[in-house]
């Protein structure tokens, strides 16, 4: 009997030695973890990398600051639609829709206005497929979503020295952007404050610069008024359809766009109107870099 007991004990000992503990690749065998690197190289000259940005992956959300971060969250296995974006000045975000702040315009009855100088918005939309017991290194290429537009007008004629100011607005600018689908929507207006250029090749011309999420709607139109000192002439109204010139504005947002137009003649009478035509990208100088002719009506 004693020999049988010892034999059974040996069998049990050998059996226990054959049972191995599971081997895992990570300390989180049932979940996945992400190390995220944001690539900010696709941005315009002189634009800073945002100090912070938001990461939204499924129901999880966090705010980060460094270019590379190990996200402090255990992800269940699955596919996560992931959105990464910053929140610049005068831009708000709800879900995947960015909205430019409203602004007051000096033009009654033409519709809503949006801020003329929102901050630089960057976004990224990507899918992250997560498996358990895995560490992931993801790279998010951030896309610049705000583009700079400059319009330069070159008045000519006998009354240019009496110009007091030029003011106007551009219609058909995007008030919202769904950065999940890339759809620009909610057409609005943006006010243009033209300032006289006092030095350089464009001295004597007038320029207005704005920042836009993009263009939206069927038409983009410049409407402006030239005011003269002493009210002589009283005013001159300017109008120009820029739909064709801005058709590709929503692409290549890292590149500022300048459109130059020349006023062929500044009328000396009152209540004149004018239409600027033949807009060309450039700085508005004569010749190859872009100028526009003007048709006058009264």
TrEMBL record:
Q: Which locations, inside or outside the cell, does it occupy?
A: Cell outer membrane
Write down the PROSITE patterns for this protein, in alphabetical order.
PROKAR_LIPOPROTEIN
Q: Write the record's keywords in alphabetical order, separated by commas.
A: Cell outer membrane, Lipoprotein, Membrane, Palmitate, Signal
Q: Which GO terms describe its cellular component?
A: cell outer membrane
- Entries under InterPro entries matching the protein: FimB/Mfa2/Mfa3 (IPR014941)
Please indicate which superkingdom the organism of origin belongs to.
Bacteria
Residues covered by region (Disordered): 272-298
Main location (coarse class): membrane
Listed Pfam families:
Mfa2 (PF08842)
Family of this protein: Belongs to the bacteroidetes fimbrillin superfamily. FimB/Mfa2 family.
What is the name attached to this protein's record? Fimbrillin family protein
Question: Origin organism of this chain?
Answer: Bacteroides intestinalis
């Amino acid at each position: 009997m004693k020999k049988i007991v010892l034999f059974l004990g040996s069998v049990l000992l050998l059996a226990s030695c054959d049972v191995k503990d599971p081997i895992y690749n990570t300390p989180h065998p049932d979940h996945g973890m992400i190390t995220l690197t944001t690539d900010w190289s696709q941005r315009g000259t002189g634009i800073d990398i945002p100090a912070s940005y938001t990461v939204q992956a499924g129901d999880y959300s966090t705010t980060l600051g460094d270019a590379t971060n190990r996200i402090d969250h255990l992800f269940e296995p699955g596919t996560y639609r992931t959105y990464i974006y910053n929140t610049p000045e005068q831009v708000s975000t709800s879900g995947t829709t960015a909205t430019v702040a409203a602004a007051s315009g000096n033009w009654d009855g033409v519709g809503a206005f949006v801020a003329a100088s929102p901050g630089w918005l960057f976004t990224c939309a990507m899918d992250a497929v997560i498996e358990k017991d895995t560490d992931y290194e993801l790279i998010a290429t951030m896309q610049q979503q705000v583009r700079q537009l400059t319009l330069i007008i070159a008045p000519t004629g006998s009354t240019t020295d009496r110009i007091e100011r030029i003011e106007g607005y551009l219609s058909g600018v995007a008030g919202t952007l769904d950065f999940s689908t890339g759809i620009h929507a909610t057409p609005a207006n943006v006010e243009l404050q033209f300032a006289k250029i006092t030095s350089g090749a464009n001295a004597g011309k007038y320029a207005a610069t704005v920042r836009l999420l993009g263009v939206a709607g069927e038409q983009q139109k410049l409407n402006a008024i030239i005011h003269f000192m002493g009210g002589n002439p009283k005013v001159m109204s300017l109008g120009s359809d820029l739909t064709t010139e801005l058709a590709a504005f929503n692409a290549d947002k890292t590149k500022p766009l300048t459109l130059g137009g020349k006023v062929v003649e500044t009328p000396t009478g009152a209540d004149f109107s004018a239409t600027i035509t033949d807009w060309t990208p450039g700085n508005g100088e004569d010749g190859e870099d872009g100028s526009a002719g003007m048709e006058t009506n009264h």
